[in-house]
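ok so for the tutorial part 2 we go from a plain amino acid sequence to predicted structure tokens. step 1 is just haveing the sequence, like this:
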Amino acid sequence: MTDIGYVKAQSDNLPKIDVFMMTAYFTSNSDFTSTEIKGVKAARSARETYGDSAVGYVQVKREGNICTVKARITPEHNVRQKCYSVTLVCDEAEETVLSVQCEDCAAHKGGCKHAIAFLAWVHRRSEEPPSTSIECYWKKSKLSSVGTSLKFIKAKDMCDIPKKQPQPVCDANIAQASTSSGESFLSLLIKYSKEVGDTDNQLTKYYNEPSDIEKLSIHYLVSMVQEDKPKTPQEFIDYCKKQMHTKMCNEAAQATINQRDCPLWYELRYARITASKAYEAAHCKSFEGSLTETIMGASKLRDTDAMKRGRELESEVIKVVQKIKKIKIKKCGIILSPLYPIMGASPDGETDDYSIEIKCPSSEKSVCQYIKNNEVSAKCMAQVQLQMHLSQKNKALFCVAHTDFEKSKNVTIVEVDYNKEMCERLIHKCTIFWANAIFPVIFK
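step 2 — the prediction. this is what the tokens look like for a chain of 444 residues:
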């Protein structure tokens, strides 16, 4: 039976949840910007193959503009366990999602995946084409029915057993070596795989030695000092300085020129204060807030329209800047320095003389966040100065595309001179923030 005041959910009485309502809810809700619930996990939770089979017993209640939808979601790790109750509340007049809450799972207080799965399920129902028949959603989920008839199956029943038992095939060298040396079969298999060059299969790729570039990762550097943990942040920074070399850093910049399309770029940014976050880090007083989570890898579930526009226009803006300044701009990956191992920068491009930063504001109001009266804002100035400092450039071009760039092709270009004293003060403040906010997390 449905709860008091609720009716069974059907294809004709569910609220309409479009993609803009979902995006607005996720981006405005702090539960869904933490490191734990970052993009890949959220995408997996929202996938059709899970939600459509796990959601069942859906019921609806309307009070004025407020619509409440309840359902039970089968936990995928234990389909025999009691289903979790999930509740979605939305304002149909304002077209906003007010809340999505799972009431039973262990992670329900921090924006769990069941809430994401249910919201995505309601969205998919909203996107389905109209049908002449009405489907009722007050029914048992498909996932909860798994294992009700056939509890288990024996290995011998999975296929027909041949009359003549085949002899096990093995490498005599491996068998002999395992017997004589006492090494485990796994260690010998890995050893022989490397000898024959088969190092990219499902097993051995987890035992490959990291490349020199991968060894620049803070994650790798932390793992190398686990037995003798540094007592202070400065001890760890000094250790990193000894392990990082200029040649390795130059190779990393070349290997990551595709930036956000390169997994290694994300790995090398992890736990480092990048130029775009330097101003915030230098002025942040909270060591356990969203800035710390962002530095540790948290990201938005989906790009905003402004972010998407910026990525689409960046290459076009670079072409215009090249034409105006009569220069050739090269792509640039993440710039690291052995002298400042906890810092990093990813300019949008560079020349022999300039570091290039591109901004593409979508409205006149947002232009002021980057430039005002031909003066670069304090936050962007910190970003550009740190980019010059790490790339050892004396000049930078700060380029702001006009809001009507698609039509006008106009770009405001400000030439910025390197300020060593500003950079040193900035790095000092960032190091203090890193020592108090990031160091305790990576060595927790």
